[in-house]
């Protein structure tokens, strides 16, 4: 976990206003969910196995250990989880080194959050080595804190990543808004007690109490996020 802002700067003050915004990375801020699937397809092809397209919805948004473990079990590939993790990260890095496209509305939203001085954290199931490479495109200075999947004991869908982010910026999770693109990430944020904006990238996500589903980040701005917290 890396932070550029002391947690003491954002201590809660008893108000019911929006205190922080946490954003997922792959498929939410950057258009890379397809990169992961392409990397998985290529690695397993090298191992002599063809991935079923239906498995894509199963592995999207999950931690590397869960996704890789599922694919090993489904294909019967003769490879350990540790070995596969290395190969997948290498293939993914090759792709992001060629450029990382931002999702529509991401650039504008990050700039708006900065203008309003709203503490913003990047919370991802990806490993630190991947996040650091993507931050070169996103901009490190836009985030008070970044949390990687290999820096927590239990990653998404467990709430630990989002509880860690809230603790890191000194915010009440109930007064934080989370933007996620997968059911796994949404589950983690909701279990942490945060309000959620779902922007589905691959698989659909249904609306529910405390959760709003939008088609694009272009529909999300600071007044919208504040209303999510206050209800008015």
Automatic annotation (TrEMBL):
GO terms for molecular function: hydrolase activity. Signal peptide: none annotated. The keyword Hydrolase applies. The keyword Glycosyltransferase does not apply. SUPFAM superfamilies: HAD-like. Keywords: Hydrolase. InterPro entries: HAD-like_sf (IPR036412), HAD-SF_hydro_IA (IPR006439), HAD_sf (IPR023214), PGP-like_dom2 (IPR023198). This is HAD family hydrolase.
């Amino acid at each position: 976990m890396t932070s550029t802002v002391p947690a003491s700067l954002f201590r809660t003050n008893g108000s019911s206003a929006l205190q922080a915004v946490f954003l997922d990375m792959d498929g939410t801020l950057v258009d890379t969910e397809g990169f992961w699937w392409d990397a998985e397809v290529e690695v397993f092809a090298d191992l002599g196995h063809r991935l079923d397209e239906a498995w894509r919805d199963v592995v999207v948004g999950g931690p590397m250990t869960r996704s890789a473990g599922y694919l090993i079990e489904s294909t019967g590939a003769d490879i350990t989880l540790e070995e596969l993790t290395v190969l997948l990260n290498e293939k993914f890095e090759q792709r992001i080194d060629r450029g990382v496209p931002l999702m529509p509305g991401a650039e504008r939203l990050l700039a708006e959050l900065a203008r309003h001085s709203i503490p913003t954290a990047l919370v991802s199931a990806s490993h630190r080595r991947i996040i650091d490479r993507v931050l070169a495109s996103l901009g490190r200075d836009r985030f008070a804190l970044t949390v990687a999947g290999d820096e927590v004991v239990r990653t998404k869908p467990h709430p630990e990543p989002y509880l860690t982010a809230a603790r890191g910026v000194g915010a009440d999770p109930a007064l934080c808004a989370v933007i996620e693109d997968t059911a796994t990430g949404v589950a983690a944020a909701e279990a942490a007690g945060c309000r959620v904006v779902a922007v589905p990238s691959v698989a659909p996500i249904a609306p529910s109490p405390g959760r709003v589903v939008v088609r694009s980040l272009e529909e999300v701005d600071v007044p919208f996020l504040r209303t999510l917290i206050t209800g008015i």
